[in-house]
Design brief:
The protein has 530 residues and is α+β, with helices and mostly antiparallel strands. It folds into four domains: 106 residues, Uridine Diphospho-n-acetylenolpyruvylglucosamine Reductase, domain 2 (2-Layer Sandwich), CATH 3.30.43; 117 residues, Uridine Diphospho-n-acetylenolpyruvylglucosamine Reductase, domain 3; 114 residues, 2-Layer Sandwich (Alpha-Beta Plaits); 110 residues, GMP Synthetase, Chain A, domain 3. 38% of the residues lie in helices and 21% in strands. The chain has 19 helices and 18 strands. The radius of gyration is 23 Å and the shape is globular. It binds flavin-adenine dinucleotide (FAD). The site of flavin-adenine dinucleotide has 38 residues, from β3, α7 and β10.
């Protein structure tokens, strides 16, 4: 069962080793935990629903609490300290297209705001009800979870959008196919959420981002149905799929999507490599992409993240041996870990492995084979469970991300990290901040930054500290010409920075599109554009 106030299945834990705990205390200071508010006490705080009864609408406190917040750090603060100011007035779980239509039509007649809800894994406030005079309804798509059609000849699958990652893969795998979209939130996020937020999976370098996979579908809107036929390519004017991608629930409810799938690959393997420092690692991954070497994932950690990854692997003895070996070969504290993968057929794997190994060597790197890659693979969807453990130790965690051209990568990484550290220093607190390049492109890379800091007793104070760091980092991103999001989307948290990227005319255009589909402005108000 999904935790109501944290990440993931409540029966899954990710314990912290003694070594990791000592490391954290050294970096952040003595750790003090503060108790969470109980679910029962929160349930009693929920005001009565403003929605008039309807057979499709659930108004229990439990339904409303569960849909009140997502997975951002402000969401965790609200849920764990009992500081929630807005709840949806009800939740609908449509079973079919007719119920989606009925929900939209009822809402439009009664001026009810609608928030399409996939897996609720948003980390930027997408699914949170914002202050509004109108009643608010969450539309949880989880019952629309079937593979409707698999066209093996065209390698296209039509899938209902409430389908979660594991259910998509299960249904496709049974017929020998895969979508290959694996965000770290894979366990709970859904196809509809991925499309509406322009998500990127861990192996997007091989399979493509969601916009490369999404070729058509069906959207229900307050002004009618909107169908997008699956053309392999088209020169027939602007591509209307782009209106749906990244629409964040503002223009309608996507009920089914047609996506590109492929046969399950013969091999899907992950390797580790080390570089002496960040610069040589960056040069190597840039060469990989610019030389068109067909790996599936390329994730380069800075020295701090490298140290933490090894520390968290839980294999203390193996790590000590590895550390000794690397030091003998002159890979010291500046060393950077690269995780890379190869997906495809056996012959191709052999060729790519050879190409990538010699490229790594040419950049003074060392290829260390599969042990670290296997450990990464084993924990690829488990790492988020650490957020629960760290919280219990009194540590808050957040992540942010961007993408910039190669020429700006170093400066942007450094300025994001400095902005986060400097802004917390103001409160006389220390932060542990580290980055990795998570996706690489011919012309640039995405930068993913994680920061850990001590919690305090007062939720408002904790929120203010987070906000200072987030604002500092966001300003560093936009001032370096980075996008405010490479994969998490805009929601509420990134909306103030969108104009910098899209310009005034761009924002007006997005608003005009929302208005065309949703003239009363009832769909997910306050998200994407304010
Ligand atoms: C631990 C963790 C790891 C993550 N890792 C990644 C990652 O690797 N890559 C990545 O891209 N993101 C990642 N995310 C962010 C998040 O998982 C993605 O944004 C994801 O795409 C959201 O999907 P969801 O189904 O949970 O959508 P929700 O959070 O429920 O909704 C997100 C937005 O999509 C809209 N929406 C959802 N379904 C529909 C629909 N059917 N029709 C119209 N609009 C809809 C909602 O209204 C909302 O605006 C991570 C989040 C967490 C918590």
């Amino acid at each position: 069962m999904m935790r109501w106030n944290g990440w993931g299945d409540s029966s899954v834990n990710y314990p912290l080793s003694e070594m990791a705990e000592t490391y954290l205390q050294e970096k952040l200071g003595v750790l003090v935990s503060f108790p969470d508010v109980s679910k029962n006490s929160l349930l009693t705080q929920i005001p009565s629903s403003k929605i008039s009864p309807h057979p499709l609408i659930q108004t229990t406190s439990s339904d409303r609490l569960y849909h009140s917040r997502g997975q951002s750090l402000p969401d965790w603060i609200a849920l764990r300290y009992g500081n929630i100011t807005t709840f949806p007035d009800g939740v609908v779980y449509p079973q079919n297209l007719e119920e989606v239509r009925e929900t939209i039509s009822f809402s439009y007649k009664n001026n009810i705001c609608l928030i399409p809800y996939g897996g609720g894994t948003s980390v930027v406030g997408h699914i949170n009800p914002t202050q509004n005079d109108n009643p608010i309804l969450s539309v949880n798509m989880k019952n629309l979870n079937c593979l409707l059609e698999l066209d093996k000849k065209s390698q296209l699958a039509t899938i209902q959008t409430g389908t979660s990652g594991p259910l998509i893969e299960k249904q496709l795998n049974q017929q020998g196919y895969t979508l290959g979209h694996f965000p770290q939130s894979f366990e709970y996020s859904t196809l509809g959420g991925w499309i509406a937020t322009r998500s990127s999976g861990q192996q997007s370098y091989h399979y493509g981002r969601i916009e490369d996979l999404f070729v058509g579908g069906h959207l229900e809107t307050p002004v009618g149905s909107f169908s997008l036929p699956p053309h392999p390519a088209s020169a027939a004017g602007p591509d209307l799929k782009q209106l749906v991608l990244g629409s964040e629930g503002r223009i309608g409810i996507l009920t089914k999507a047609i996506v590109r799938v492929q046969p399950i690959p013969e091999v899907d393997v992950f390797y580790g490599a080390f570089f002496r420092n960040w610069n040589s690692g960056c040069d190597a991954v840039k060469s990989i992409v610019q030389n068109n070497i067909q790996i599936s994932i390329c994730r380069l950690s800075d020295p701090t993240e490298t140290e933490i990854t090894l520390l968290l692997s839980g294999k203390e003895n193996q790590i000590k041996w590895l550390d000794r070996g690397l030091k003998t070969l002159n890979y010291h504290s500046d060393r950077c870990l690269l995780i890379l993968g190869i997906t495809g057929n056996r012959n191709k794997k052999r060729i790519i492995r050879h190409e990538v190994k010699s490229l790594i060597k040419n950049h003074s790197g060392i290829f260390v084979g599969r042990i670290i890659g296997n450990s990464w693979e084993k924990n690829r969807f488990k790492t988020p469970y650490l957020r629960n453990t760290l919280w219990d130790y009194g540590v808050a965690v957040d992540t942010l991300e961007t993408a910039v051209p190669w020429k700006n990568v170093h400066k942007t990484v450094n300025e994001i990290k400095s902005a986060i550290s400097n802004n917390l220093e103001f409160f006389n607190e220390k932060v542990l901040v580290f980055s990795h390049l998570s996706h690489i492109y011919r012309d640039g890379a995405s930068i993913y930054t994680t920061f850990l800091f001590r919690r305090c007793k007062d939720p408002d104070e904790l929120f203010i500290r987070w906000k200072k760091m987030k604002q500092g980092a966001s300003k560093a991103i936009v001032s370096n010409g980075g996008t405010i999001s490479h994969q998490h989307g805009v929601g509420t948290d990134h909306a103030p920075y969108l104009q910098e990227e899209k310009g005034e005319l761009g924002i007006q255009t997005i608003k005009a599109i929302c208005n065309e589909f949703d003239p009363k402005g009832l769909l997910n108000p306050g998200k994407l554009v304010m």
